[in-house]
Amino acid sequence: MLDKMMRHVKNMIKYAKSGGVVYINFSKVQPSKRFEGKRVLITGGSSGIGLETAKEYLAEGAEVIITGRHGKTLEEAARKLASDKLHTVIWDVSDVKIISEKLQESVQLLNGSNIDIFVNNAGIYVSENLAEYDESTYDSIMATNTKGLFFMCQA
Q: Rounded CA gap, 40 and 81, in Å?
């Protein structure tokens, strides 16, 4: 009991020293192929969380489409993922007028099959100081992170 209590105290000290940030590492031992035959669409899949999500779905056997605003970034992501089950679509989700067209393009990439899993991940982050945002920066963030998210869910 005392040993367990000491571990908790040490962890609390580490937590306080890190400024309240907790870092967690986790990994899987073996992919299970539980998504074999499933088709996944991941918006914002060319970097960050979207790219890692695509990597996991591919490891689990899914056919995956990742989207992003920049062709070069999508190409780099495709090189990193290196899978014949991966497709890319240049798509800016803040442009709600093209959602239907891009969904149709995605279905065509899947040989007419429906999308089984949709990961609405696209978002932008501007690393400058919040107090220095101008109206166009704010509008750009809201168009992708809120408006795009909403209309993608609706579609």
A: 15
